[in-house]
Amino acid sequence: xxxxFKKSEKLYEAGLVHLVGAVNSPVRAFKSVGGxxxxxxxxxxxxxxxxxxxxxxxxxxxxGPMILGHRHKKVQKAILKALKNGYSFGASSEDEIKLAxxxxxAFPSTDKVRFVNSGTEAVFSAIRLARAFAGKxxxxxxxxxxxxxxxxxxxxxxSGLATLSIPGSKGVPAxxxxxxxxxxxxxxxxxxxxxxxxxxxAAVIIEPVAGNMGVVLPKDNFLKEMKVLxxxxxxxxxxxxxxxxxxxxxGGAIDFFDVKPDIVCLGKVxxxxxxxxxxAARNEIMEMVSPLGPVYQAGTLSGxxxxxxxxxxxxxxxKKQNPYKQFELNAQRLEQIIMDAAKENGIDVVVNRFGxxxxxxxxxxxxxxxxxxQTSDTEAFGIFFWExxxxxxxxxxxxxxxxxxxxxxxxxxxxKTNKAINAAMKKVALSR
Length: 432
Ligand SMILES: *Cc1c(COP(=O)(O)O)cnc(C)c1O
Known about the structure:
Layout: H1 6-18, E1 40-44, E2 47-50, E3 55-58, H2 73-83, H3 94-106, E4 112-116, H4 119-134, E5 138-142, H5 159-164, H6 174-177, E6 180-183, H7 188-197, E7 201-206, H8 222-232, E8 236-240, E9 263-266, E10 277-281, H9 283-286, H10 305-321, H11 324-344, E11 350-354, E12 357-361, H12 370-373, H13 378-391, E13 393-394, E14 403-404, H14 411-430
Parallel strand pairs: 3-13, 5-6, 5-7, 7-8, 8-9
Antiparallel strand pairs: 1-2, 2-3, 4-10, 9-10, 11-12, 12-14
Helix pairs in contact: 2-10, 3-10, 11-14, 13-14
This protein binds pyridoxal-5'-phosphate (PLP).
């Protein structure tokens, strides 16, 4: 029986009146898969439930933060406890120290942390800090990497922008991006060239494993070679681990490639569903930040006590569960399900994955950068997406977003997933 979306449709109509496109973040509008967006009523564990009461195995997980699944008992308890003490103080509280300690212990190249309220804020603050520390203005970013929506980083910026096919954004002055240089992911030559052409490069920012053009892994020694090159030229490396932090190990994805970043940006998982971002670095760099140094950066709600409690409880439970081996096995299993279903139905699919991040590209080309990601058949993805919805699977409504695994996934979820993916691949085959 076809699912009914009557209530979501009604809410969408109502939402259009006083919200922009009825959403507060563009990918939620389902533009790239067509049709109306779902409205969500609640979620628990690995399951998310829409306004009409339809249940889905959740592979979106709020785009990463809900790594333990929704409303984990221990996290909920910590949040409720914190709520009783007050919501915001405008002064420091002990939990900020605790969360900072957990982060610094997990990221060996860092000594100090500054908390902010989002990944976007973490990254643009880190860029300011890098420029101040290096005494230079230019930065290099990679095509297809997304680092939040601040002006200077809103060029060649992956998923949201990729599927809308706009190169940047209106309203960003040319001057704001004139110091942002663009290199190709997995192409060390493109970095070398920029360094040869420009003398005043402060930093390179990268997603160590890219997750905003679909999942794209760094090749062989790409990160390592780049780090050597940067050291030779006195250029800082900023690892944007907003998505990857605590996702594939208790710490940063960059550790897998044996590279030490100068500054790390975090978000998503470290708030466990609450708005938390952070940037962290060694003392020498962090001491540039106000009140210790001349780089100004502030926030009324930064280090919010409820958000800190959620972050601490999430990371503590994550450390205890240590689900990373299981993530690897589950991602492997999911890949197998997808590849088998694709083969059975004669559909070209390439699956990229890293730890608990995975996604299938509807292409036959190996996906190693933004350009190869773009060879995907987004129309096929749209058909695939909607059949998965019918079958009770919630995946990101874009070919260029990673799916996420949580530690709450069950055997039953896997059975449902297997059935759904087979039905959806069949639907794609029938559409041809
Ligand atoms: C999500 C994300 C951001 C932006 O974080 P927000 O909390 O959405 O502002 C920045 N960088 C990366 C790599 C991300 O995945």
